[in-house]
């Protein structure tokens, strides 16, 4: 008998891609795909079960499937369809609690993979230059998706203590981008102009959606010789980009604003439904965030195909040309950078 893999969050494109990908793995006999709504994309030969992980029925679904591996992808920052922030938080937090409760009771589950985020580190002025998986967080996220991920990881650690026989792999992804990326940062970069905080040019890291699929597959498999796919791992492409560099490569002008004005602009953008411009995202676009990925390579044995710059380039190609040619935009950004600026942060650098 081969492996039986249960995957949550399959109505989203990333979840659907992973379901199709994991079916090709040797040793996987059956894939059970779970979500609250039927997906619009193809799931291959997977068995789709329409179920809400926020409800106790997920325990019955898990028991009936006989799954030995659970890949929890239904931890996300964006609503599915017309759902709002309340529904997203309930799915992230309550849904994870219900799923972990079902896993705890299951005699067949031996491996759990959880899609998390580097948002758990927050973004603050006194943060270290680079976060490792064991770096103490000086300023915990106070709300939004970032706070959800902190709570989710807390419940996962509790589960791991109660079920030490289950291999638990938590993957903290940097900002996910790619041609079909669906995230607050992807929405932000799709705006015609990019509101930024005056005086700051944050460092950003990205991970390509193709690499996300590949590393989730590694987490779901039995570890190979010399590797260990249980524990907590930062997942990001090599290198960093400054926000000003992202603006140039997109061909979308930046609009530097004082922090109160950026907060107001975020409220307006969120009201129009164009992007989830939450306070935590504003902090990211002020202070940035960079994580170390040594454990990803040395322990997990994963090497991303895309660097941060290559990931962003692929995203840019999928979005089409911006308002301004990159060369003209670069000159405009340089002129803005030369003006006297109040505040701190990193000065813009040339590409």
Give a written overview of the molecule.
This protein is α/β, with parallel strands linked by helices and 351 residues long. It has a domain at 3-176 and 208-235: NAD(P)-binding Rossmann-like Domain (Rossmann fold, 3-Layer(aba) Sandwich), CATH 3.40.50. Helix content is 39%, strand content 17%. The strands form 4 sheets. Strands 3-2-1-4-5-6-11 form a 7-stranded parallel β-sheet, with helices on both faces. Strand 1 (3-8), helix 1 and strand 2 form a beta-alpha-beta unit. Helix 7 runs antiparallel to helix 12.
Chain-wise SSE layout:
Layout: E1 3-8, H1 13-22, E2 28-35, E3 47-50, H2 57-65, E4 69-72, H3 85-105, E5 111-117, H4 144-162, E6 167-173, E7 175-177, H5 184-189, E8 194-197, E9 203-204, E10 206-208, H6 209-220, E11 231-235, E12 241-242, H7 243-250, E13 254-257, H8 259-271, H9 279-287, H10 294-298, H11 308-319, H12 326-338
Parallel strand pairs: 1-2, 1-4, 2-3, 4-5, 5-6, 6-11, 7-10, 8-13
Antiparallel strand pairs: 9-12
Helix pairs in contact: 1-6, 2-3, 3-4, 7-12
């Amino acid at each position: 008998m081969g492996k039986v893999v249960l995957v949550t969050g399959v109505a989203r494109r990333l979840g659907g891609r992973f379901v199709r990908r994991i079916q090709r793995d040797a040793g996987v006999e059956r894939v059970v795909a779970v979500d609250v709504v039927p997906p619009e994309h193809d799931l291959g030969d997977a068995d789709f079960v329409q179920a809400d992980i926020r409800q106790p029925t997920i325990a019955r679904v898990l028991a009936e499937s006989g799954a030995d591996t659970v890949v929890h992808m239904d931890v996300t920052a964006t609503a599915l369809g017309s759902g709002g922030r309340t529904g997203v938080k309930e799915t992230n937090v309550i849904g994870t609690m219900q799923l972990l409760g079902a896993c705890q009771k299951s005699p067949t589950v031996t491996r759990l993979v959880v899609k998390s985020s580097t948002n758990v580190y927050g973004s603050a002025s006194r943060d270290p230059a680079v976060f490792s998986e064991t770096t103490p967080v000086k300023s915990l996220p106070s709300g939004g998706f970032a706070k959800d991920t902190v709570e989710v990881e807390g419940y996962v650690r509790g589960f791991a203590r109660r079920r030490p026989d289950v291999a638990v792999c938590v993957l903290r992804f940097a900002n996910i981008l790619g041609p079909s990326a669906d995230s607050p940062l992807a929405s932000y970069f799709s705006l015609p102009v990019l509101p930024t905080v005056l005086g700051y040019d944050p460092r950003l890291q990205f991970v390509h959606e193709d690499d996300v699929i590949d590393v989730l597959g590694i987490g779901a498999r039995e570890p190979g010789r010399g590797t260990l796919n249980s524990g907590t791992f930062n997942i990001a492409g090599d290198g960093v980009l400054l926000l000003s560099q992202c603006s140039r490569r997109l061909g979308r002008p930046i609009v530097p604003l004082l922090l109160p004005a950026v907060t107001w602009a975020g409220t307006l953008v969120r009201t129009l439904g164009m992007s989830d411009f939450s306070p935590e995202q504003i902090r990211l676009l002020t202070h940035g965030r960079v994580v170390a990925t040594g454990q990803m390579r040395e322990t997990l044995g994963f090497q991303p195909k895309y660097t941060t710059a290559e990931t962003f380039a692929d995203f840019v190609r999928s979005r089409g040309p911006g308002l301004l040619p990159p060369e003209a935009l670069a000159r405009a950004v340089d002129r803005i950078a030369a003006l006297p600026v109040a505040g701190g942060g990193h000065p813009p650098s040339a590409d």
